[in-house]
Amino acid sequence: MIINFNQIQYNNVRSLKGPATQTVNQLTFNSNLAGPDSVFFAIKGENHDGHMYIEDAIQKGAIAIFAENEDVVQTLAHAYPFCTFLLVDDVRKSMAYFSKQYYDSPDEKIKTVGVTGTNGKTTVAAYVRSLLSLLGMSSGSIGTTGIWSSTKRIPYKKSTPTTPEALDLHRIFKDLYDLGDQAVAMEVSSIALDQKRVEGIEFDVAIHTNISPEHLEYHHTFENYRMCKEKLFQQAKNAVINVDDEMGRKLVNTYKHRKVTYSLDANAEADLIATNLQYAGNGTSFKLHSHGEIHDVFVPVFGDYNVANVLSAIGTSLLLGYTMPFIIKSLTKLESPEGRFQVIDGPSRETIILDYAHTPVALTRLVDEVKKMEHNRLIVMVAGIGIRDFEKMPKMAKAIEGRADEIIVTVDHPGFHEPSIIVDKVMSGFANPDAPHIHRTNTRREGVLKSLHLGGEHDIILLTSGCINGAQIVKGTEIPHSDEDIIQMYYHLSS
Ligand SMILES: CC(=O)N[C@H]1[C@@H](OP(=O)(O)OP(=O)(O)OC[C@H]2O[C@@H](n3ccc(=O)[nH]c3=O)[C@H](O)[C@@H]2O)O[C@H](CO)[C@@H](O)[C@@H]1O[C@H](C)C(=O)N[C@@H](C)C(=O)N[C@H](CCC(=O)O)C(=O)O
Ligand SMILES: Nc1ncnc2c1ncn2[C@@H]1O[C@H](COP(=O)(O)OP(=O)(O)OP(=O)(O)O)[C@@H](O)[C@H]1O
What residue stretches are annotated with the Mur ligase C-terminal domain (predicted)? Predict the structure, then answer.
């Protein structure tokens, strides 16, 4: 594509050196991935300064560079006169605006729904994708479980665990639009908001599920974390807000556009309230109170918090113009994401539940819900995540202690850490770490096998936390891993 950099609109270009026009066929922020005719964005990261790799990118064929460092731009523009150099105030911001324009603003051609919150983003994005598609607005989704069109999973190589970098994001929007989808529900992490990955997008709907401490290794303070999440609502035309959450209640006061609020509290002031939640066969039934009317609803999901997540999808559909009777009818066919309260039946009538819960709050609520199901003994596996916040690990142990018959402690994604150090950190949260029903394992595979081994007739085996992209991240490498495969193999071998 021929680009005249003088005609591109981004708000922070300080100067342009070199040719104004170039033929561009690739965007990248990683010099190792630069190829002929690429645009390279020099990002200052936690470990490297992208400015150090500009020459590397040029050697590999980059013909335009976005950079913030004036001295570097001066020197390199002189050395590489065939290359275009754009000096900008904020490379990440420029990357977001440039990517949007490069792909012809695909975010404006489809409805965009952004989901933020400590717990529930993946679940809500999947519910919104499913509900909108059932209502006739074919919708994709973007997040931890991958990139999905309205009909299938699309095998992208992901640049990040949850919210893609801007240049991937706009390509995905374009691909979804080209596939005929009319909407996309995407997880928007606090880190993505901080790193301006969604800058320049005006969301049709922004959803807030809840907030509790998370990612403090990145944001350092809870206040920074909260402020990052709030940014999503400064770029949204409509909002869906959980008022059972403190940040949600504050948002309701500050957010001035159209909004739908939701709650599980019969006494709350909210547009959507679910009461009388009851397990019913393969799902949950409840009464939905909305503006003086009461509706009977059945939805094939488990867990009170998942009913709250369903309310956020209902709110989104209402804001996008659908009517309540149509929505309620469609909810009976709602699809859930994999690994979120995913139930597998074992051969001796054990119930194995795979659930991605990995924050102390999510673990507590998950165990509350699981205990409502009929069972003999409860076996719970918890995993410290090496690439996440170490401070939350002991709190995960506290959330489980005294609530399960057997506890297996293991590791997810050790990263560059020694697995036993991560296990020690989780163990430090138990009042009695030497109790005979608490077991240590150093890999997720061992943890799953130990849990299955301890399970018997009518037991529930709850395997928490999980994989990113079907893999365990070990020393920077993705090692393929699937709990489901291990479960299948275990029962096959022992039968
Ligand atoms: C911790 C963190 O914020 N990491 C992000 C950060 O990387 P970094 O600061 O380590 O980058 P760096 O290694 O210092 O390098 C700086 C720049 O130099 C470039 N470089 C480096 C070396 C080289 O040879 N050539 C080169 O061009 C790098 O490509 C990069 O652009 O900047 C990169 C470029 O923007 C991001 O892709 C990267 O996300 C990584 C992949 C990541 O794992 N992020 C996680 C923490 C994340 O974003 N998580 C959230 C939430 C997940 C959840 O749901 O809980 C998410 O949305 O995924
Ligand atoms: N609304 C909710 N409130 C509390 N806990 C929830 C809620 N929704 C889901 N959970 C719990 O949190 C776990 C993770 O859910 P989900 O993957 O949807 O969250 P997430 O925000 O996408 O997390 P991540 O970004 O780490 O993937 C679920 O498996 C469940 O145990």
Answer: 339-465
